[in-house]
Design brief:
With about 160 residues, the protein is α+β, with helices and mostly antiparallel strands. The protein has one domain: Gcn5-related N-acetyltransferase (GNAT) (Aminopeptidase), CATH 3.40.630.30. It has a 7-stranded mixed β-sheet with strand order 1-2-3-4-5-7-6, with helices on both faces. It is globular. The model has no long low-confidence stretch (mean pLDDT about 95). The structure holds coenzyme A (COA). The site of coenzyme A has 18 residues, from strand 4, helix 4 and helix 5.
Length: about 160
């Protein structure tokens, strides 16, 4: 049984545990590097969760984090989904779908009409999940990856 837990700033140790596990497990899936985060102190982690209007969720099984996702405001009518990760032992059970759905519901409640995200090209499991959840690839140019050549792929979903 996996429960989704909405975090407050006081839950930063849980967010740190999940984020370090994600960056260790799937370094190629994220633009952030483990090295940028693992030495971060309390204030750096709290600041992440304190971004006004952000929605941070960890999936827990037996009290241990097995997944995470966050939503952040990204303009007047747009929210952005970030940091999606499910631990290898919890994959294929629909946890990823549930995490995407919870951010889509939050974005709708926040008044957004569009939910967007950036994915590293070639991350087929993530792209397949996002397509299944109603996201389509957009023409918007994503940020450059550290190689300075490849760009993230921007996907978006109309919420209403
Ligand atoms: C991408 C990722 C989040 C998917 O997480 P997940 O929990 O496995 O996703 P889901 O279970 O919702 O869906 C994955 C598959 O399981 C299947 N599935 C869903 N519910 C299921 C269930 N109850 N039983 C068996 N399979 C199920 C889905 O149909 C899907 O199959 P498919 O990809 O072959 O079509 C995960 O692989 C991950 O964390 N990857 C590394 C980090 C990453 O890439 N993050 C995205 C950054 S943009």
């Amino acid at each position: 049984m996996v429960d989704l837990h909405v975090l407050t700033a006081a839950d930063w140790p849980l967010w740190r545990e999940a984020r370090i596990a994600a960056l260790t497990d799937a370094p190629d899936a994220f633009k952030s590097a483990l090295a940028d985060w693992e030495k971060g102190g309390r204030e750096q982690w709290r600041a992440r969760l304190d971004i006004p209007g952000s929605h941070n969720v960890v999936a827990l099984r037996d009290g241990l984090p097995v997944g995470m996702v966050r939503g952040v405001p990204a303009g007047a009518d747009t929210s952005e989904l970030r940091s999606l990760w499910v631990s290898p032992e919890a994959r294929g059970e629909g946890v990823g779908d549930r995490l995407v759905e919870t951010v889509a519901s939050w974005a709708l409640r926040s008044g957004s009409t569009t939910l967007k995200l950036a994915v590293i090209p070639g991350n087929q499991p993530a792209i397949a999940l996002y397509r299944r959840s109603g996201f389509v690839i957009t023409e918007e140019p994503g940020n450059f990856l550290p190689d300075g050549v490849t760009r993230e792929q921007v996907m978006a979903k109309r919420l209403r």
